[in-house]
Amino acid sequence: MLKSIKVRDYMTRHLVTFRSDTDLFTAINRLLEHRISAAPVVDSQGHLIGLLSEGDCLRGILSGAYYEAIGGNVSAYMTAEVETISPEADIIELSERFLRGRRRRLPVVEDGHLIGQISRHDVLRAVKEFAQHEQGKLEAG
Q: Where are the domains positioned within the chain?
């Protein structure tokens, strides 16, 4: 049953992250280098404190160009209110959240600490593996 598949089983554990004092252009370079559209911002203890997206970076550049002061730290541009999910949530719950909202990925937080990230791609992989497993059981039975 898909409800038995947990976020923990399919989340990505090795993430690109930023600190609040990371320079905006350093962050932009890392997003481009890793070909990702956003990355979590964590404090020194690994607590999630925000998310920096391509959109946040664009807003930072545009507002800086307008005021002729381009740059600054990630903390000035990151989104501080971040939707998260528990590693114990099931794939069905996660799928429903993805369909209700416009998020493509969610940070996975346990006891306040960022432990991973799960994306729509990861959900599709989980469903595919589950379907293949169930098909194999039917063919064997």
A: 2-140
